[in-house]
Amino acid sequence: MKFRPCIDLHNGKVKQIVGETLGTEGKDIIENFVSSYDSTYYAAMFKRDHLLGGHVIMLGDGNKAEAVSALQEYPGGLQIGGGIQAENASYYLDRGASHVVVTSYIFRDGQLNLGNLNKIVSEVGKNELVIDLSCKEKDGKWFVATNQWKQLSNFELNEENIRFLEQYCDEFLIHAVDVEGKQSGIQQSLVSTLAEWVTIPTTYAGGARSFADIELFRELSGGNLDITIGSALDIFGGNLSYDQVVKYMKELTMTNK
């Protein structure tokens, strides 16, 4: 289990936003935190602490310059997502991204678009692709949410579909949309089932707010999943010490060696 950091960009600034509100009018977007620091400040911090595999997410237009600055500050240390397509993926890889993250490009009109999936794999290769399977619960099942989480697709997260997509990518990134940005605790059933299904590196994000949550996550996942923590961290306006989380994770890694 590893801690994967994040840099979320909105209107050119580092922010923590309740993701479900992104599809609403501007005045209705819930911002948990707006940083006075730019993206390079956080990228340098993650580089200093040797945190690999974090993600930079561009939430809409106007974030390209800040995203590239972060990638160039920590080349090879960060992934990039938000508006990634086959046509622009290599641009970000050439500027330091370790992987590109895709969601809406491969889920069109509420379903998986195999043509676009094959196109981007042909462009960048499986080993540099992360598929974002951020999802919402419906009738006791999990379905991928796309287009800034406004549209629920018909693509169900189950073992068969997970196994199918593992052929195309190096990692998964999965936000639990119902709790993301709300500091209301992790989606326990999703964590448990994901840990049983996945066989490639998979990062879970959503709801973690305390060391008790981190311990619960480790127990439920059996250490088979990595975790992202955003709004709860003190570097993003929360109460959970970033430095203590980094220390905890490093000690955990040493213990498991």
Explained architecture:
With 257 residues, the protein is of the alpha/beta class. 32% of the residues lie in helices and 25% in strands. The protein has eight helices and 15 strands. It has a ten-stranded mixed sheet with strand order 3-2-1-4-5-6-9-13-14-15. The chain has a three-stranded antiparallel sheet with strand order 10-11-12, with no helix packed on it. It has a two-stranded antiparallel ribbon with strand order 7-8. α1 (39-48) runs parallel beside α2 (64-73). The longest helix has 15 residues, at 242-256. The protein is globular. It starts with 5 loop residues before the first strand and ends with a helix. The model has no long low-confidence stretch (mean pLDDT 92).
- Shape, per Cα inertia axes: globular
* Helicity range: 25-40%
Give the termini distance in whole angstroms: 12 Å
The ordered string of helix (H) and strand (E) elements is EEEHEHEHEEEHEEEEHEHEHEH
> Sheet bearing the most strands, described?
10 strands, mixed
Low-confidence stretches: none
Strand content: 15-25%
Mean pLDDT score, rounded?
92
Q: What's the Cα radius of gyration?
A: 17 Å
Number of helices: 8
Class by SSE composition = alpha/beta
Q: Order of strands across the widest beta sheet? A: 3-2-1-4-5-6-9-13-14-15
Multimeric state of these chains?
single chain
| Beta strands, count | 15
